[in-house]
Write a structure and sequence with these properties.
Layout (H helix, E strand, L loop, with lengths): L1 H15 L6 E3 L18 E4 L3 E2 L7 E5 L5 E9 L3 H13 L6 E4 L8 E15 L3 E13 L8 E14 L5 H24 L5
Parallel strand pairs: 1-5, 2-6, 2-7, 3-7, 4-7
Antiparallel strand pairs: 4-5, 7-8, 8-9
Helix pairs in contact: 2-3
Amino acid sequence: MKIITICLCILLISCTSEPLNVRYYLLHTPQKKVDTKSDVAKPIVVVQSLKIADYLRQSNLVLQVDEYELHYSRQDVWAEELGSSFYNALLQDLNTNSQRNYVASSSPEAIGAATTINIKLEHFHATDASTVVSSGRYWLSVNDLKTAKNKVLATSSHSFYFESQLKQDGYSHAVEKLRTLVVNLANQIEKDIAALPNN
């Protein structure tokens, strides 16, 4: 009798639990137009690797449900590590219609950089108030290329906060809106670099 009861319990549990339908999201997607050479007349700017807040260092998409409470989606996840995806999307956006060549720190062109960017991403998620937010800080350093040691002449610190309203439900729309916040950051960085001395 005990064996029959255990078997029935297992059968009931297996019937009620559906398989999890996981959806994967990309923040950085390839562009149709591929530029294989950079304009040597443009000044070079190095984008250092991105630092992100600890709570963003996992694959699950985040929803802020209260001022101090976060919900991690079990079935909506980033297809690649968020820091890497955000970095690639930002680099792509910075080079779109720009007056400068933005390169990764690992690029051979980085040695001739007049300016360096360091970025810390503190928030990048949806909220229960039907918005998406992105915030953090970045530092711009102007390098003296005339000296062999490539001395830093000046460093400026800038904070950013972007928010966009969601018009639809679902993480797919939230990711689409989060992507526009990366474009906003690229535009702000470009303006701040243009305002630096010797730029």
